[in-house]
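Data deposition worksheet. Section B asks for the primary sequence of the deposited chain exactly as it was used as input, without tags or linkers unless they were present during the calculation. Section C holds the resulting structure in token form. Section D is free text for depositor observations; keep each observation to a single sentence. Incomplete worksheets are returned to the depositor.
Section A, Depositor: J.P.
Section B:
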Amino acid sequence: MTSRRPPAQTRPVVTASALLVVLVLSLLSACGVSSQGTATRIEPENVPFGLLDDDTTTTAVEAGRTTSVYLLSEDRLVPVTRSVDDDAALDDLLTQVITGPTEVEQSLGITTAVPAGTLASVDTSRGIAEVDLTSSFGDIRSGEQILALGQIVYTLTGQPGIGGVRFTVEGKEVKVPLSEGSPNDDPLSRDDFEAIAPT
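Section C:
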């Protein structure tokens, strides 16, 4: 009687391509990439870093220019630098004069003699700035008035094309007291304030 040898167990044949598939899947799962075949919706509140925002991101670049306005150090005019818009008007510059010194400038003893509510308007005509003051300008002490007028004249004549400043009060022409005491109704220039000119 011939004995039969039991059939040898068939072993699965592992091909190189199968090994590659297993390796790729394990790498993907290790990297956190899902191997699922369909897309999964992410709720908007779970999207990080504001990626759904419609706002355009821009880098802010400050436009403008620097100019000098004139404040006071004791009884003398002193120029300080201010940043203004490229198209800043003369009344914008006088607003800086009224606003006065920064905290640092205050600590250095810098002040302003032009209070709020004393300037009504500023216009220009043929190279002359025409400044209309309110009646409250008359409430300033006479010595302070000369300092305030000097601040205005120096600030405005520092701008291109402005050679002098004419003052009115409530639209009416007035004679302005100068530093030596004489009144003047002509346009004022820096020469009229030599006694308080910057040192």
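Section D:
The beta strands are 65-73, 76-84, 110-111, 119-125, 128-133, 164-169, 172-173, 176-177, 183-184.
The first strand starts at residue 65 and ends at 73.
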